[in-house]
Here is the input.
Amino acid sequence: MINSKQEEFLKLYEPIHDRFERFCRARVYGDMEFRDLMNETLLVAYEKFETLKSSQAFLSFLFSISVRILANQNRKKSEVRLEIDGSILKKQDNHAQTDLEVEIYFLYESLAKLGDDQRESLILFEISGFSIKEIAEIQNASESAVKQRLKRGREKLTEILTFESELKTGEVQHG
Here is the structure.
């Protein structure tokens, strides 16, 4: 029985591994190691595998579990961030070699500045390709709340990315 459970679990997981990894990388940026979130999520998902109602909902099942794990972690700890001259210390990725990797790094860094609900909605919709209805189910929210989170999240992300771009080029307007 255990072998068939493992086989079925892996059969569902292997095709969605990349999408799940991208979600975890984007969702946890700066909070914890994405592999830790993936491992914890997969462990819980395997333990609760019998509760999965439909194999088509497996990715959503994993996302829901990872969201709960992050929420529980954030409740348990009150993170203290060191600030020097008003700037939060950040771990630099010294391995980013290409322009694409650099852009992804800055996108994740900017996503990390959004509120949890907005960040999660954007990641699920824009990166993972979930529908608004599916996101509403994952987040236990109404579809209009998800639409509002997406709208506000995009606006805030645009503001963050525009400001940081202006900082780098020295074009910041002082008002």
